[in-house]
Amino acid sequence: MPHEGFADETVHQRAWAGRPTRNDPDRLRLASVDGRTVDGGIAGDETVDDETAGEKTVDGKTAGETLVERVAGEGVAGRAVLDEAVAGQAVGERATDGEAIRTVAEGIVKELPPELFIAHGTNAEMRWEAVRDVGYHVPNERFFVRNHTSTPIIDAATWRLELHGSGLTNPRSFGYEELLALPAVTRDVAIECAGNGRSLFTTQQRQEISGTPWRLGGIGVARWRGVPLSTVLDRAGLTPDAVDVMPRGLDPHYVCDGVDYGPVRRPIPVAKALKDVILAYEMNGRPLPPDHGYPVRLVVPSWIGLASVKWVGDIEVSTSPLASPWNTDFYRMFGEDHPPEGSAPLALQTVKSAFELPWDAELRAGHPYVLHGRSWSGNGRIAGVEVSVDGGTTWRQARLRGPHVVPAWTRWHIGWNPLKTGPHILLARATDETGAVQPSRTPHNDFGYLFDAVAGHPVTVVNG
């Protein structure tokens, strides 16, 4: 059965447009607050109010958020501030004079510096330590990439969105400029791969699974701007008896084991489409980068990332249920605990947490740190986060930063002064506003979807 992780069938060769600019070196941080070190308790108040969390610049910090840097583990010697690549693919180019290596994965346009990403074939996982120095939103150049095949380069001047099907009385199309002229909304939304955390089924639960071995970096939150899908459906004459809409991408066909499954497409119930789905054309205040859906993509809040179809070219609207391989053969739970035909198609995401520090980070004994992280849930806002620094023997409440902001994710921090040298397992356990709590174990499924167990983050404490 096809699943994530198969090789691309189509890889485009492109030439790079422009060179990256480079900023002063920065370092991965475990930070003290306002220039002060802290003891083993919770650090000073870093609560962010609703307006601050929503308006924080992509790469900046709010006023008064001063950090004293402490390098954890290897750290990052320098960071390239990447210009948006509108076309091209770099292959194996190594910079000189100590500059960072320029790398990309197969079928991905943007650069993938190894200090920011873990490459997985046609996909690129965000390193959590790479967002320690950014605000609420993940910058475009640090956002993870999930491709089934390869990133297409599309001319917005000739692109059109076709709306068709039995659920419309006025089938029609929209050009790019027509779409930009419609009333727009701006929303902070998380996009998360259904397989995020998949590798932890193996490393933590000792279970065999198939697919791209994501840790927890197959997620990102951005500020998306676009037209509500309800607006274009209304203008195309949505009928009262319409039940499903199915967006289809313009990416190359997905071919596996000799079977051509066509471009990525996935039906969405009309009720969800009308509720909060948008046709996004901006990401963090800029036109969508190619890897993230240029010129237009769907953004489907709270659902698995597959539903947020990139490079959308047409949308079918039907008065009867629609289906595609992406909700029949793929993106269902299969395995001994599920029926032979699989579970219902996956929709809502689960509760998760991650620490903003390197995997296997090295910390110094007797030095106070502030551990930072983020938690999120497809059910809504995060109500609380507990942290354990002793493998789950004891737990303390972390301090939430902006607990009443949009529900995309919540940042938190907690102080720790490690005294005992040797390996430690850090744990973060979130509870969302519905009362859902991260479990100690996720039930197995063959393709490793929706891992939501408390993830053990390994660190080593050494003599200072």
TrEMBL record:
InterPro entries: Ig_E-set (IPR014756), MoCF_OxRdtse_dimer (IPR005066), Mopterin_OxRdtase_euk (IPR008335), OxRdtase_Mopterin-bd_dom (IPR000572), OxRdtase_Mopterin-bd_sf (IPR036374). Residues 1-27 are annotated as: Disordered. Residues 1-12 have a biased composition (Basic and acidic residues). Keywords: Metal-binding, Molybdenum, Oxidoreductase. Residues 365-444 form the Moybdenum cofactor oxidoreductase dimerisation domain. Its cofactor is Mo-molybdopterin. CDD domains: SO_family_Moco_dimer. It comes from the Bacteria. Residues 148-326 form the Oxidoreductase molybdopterin-binding domain. This is DMSO/TMAO reductase YedYZ molybdopterin-dependent catalytic subunit. It comes from Streptosporangium lutulentum.
